[in-house]
Amino acid sequence: MKWENWLSIDWQQVLGISLSAVGFYVGLMLFTRLMGLRSFSKLSSHDFAMTVGIGSILASTVLSDKPSLFQGLFAVAVLFLIQGVISVIRRKIKPLKALIDNQAIILMAHGEYLEDNLKEANLSTSDVQEVLRKNGIKAKTEVFAVIMETTGDMSVIKNNDVEPDWSLFDDIRDSELLLGASKNSKSQV
Hints:
Number of strands: 5
Number of helices: 8
Structural class: alpha+beta
Shape: elongated
């Protein structure tokens, strides 16, 4: 390895990196203002792909002279355009939404782990327990549901005296497990 190449930088590189970083930053702010706050949200898998793609383009554009700043900005503009088209498709054509997005899945209902759903999500009970602890849960009986959202985040919903608004759960696979167990517990009271 040539240490002098690995540890060196000259003023032309510093200037080029600085100009590319500023140009890319300004371009990203402009694209984000044009496309809206959704640009860097984490609501679906295509949002995640957008963020990863922009990060990759940013790194290669800022740290190298190839691709050029304008090529990098054009690539990012194309990603923003693709995201905009996919967002419209998701809103307007419901059958295609199911093809584009992952579906949220229930991992735990009424304090009980759903082993088949854990297996399908490639998770263990330990993974869910970690999330429960981070949410201040001390006992499984405190849990109404743990849901793996479309982004891979886990939502923990605690038991309380509020009657659930079932429309909040209708886009989750196996949501009937929440409804059935809730009705059973009321009939036993």
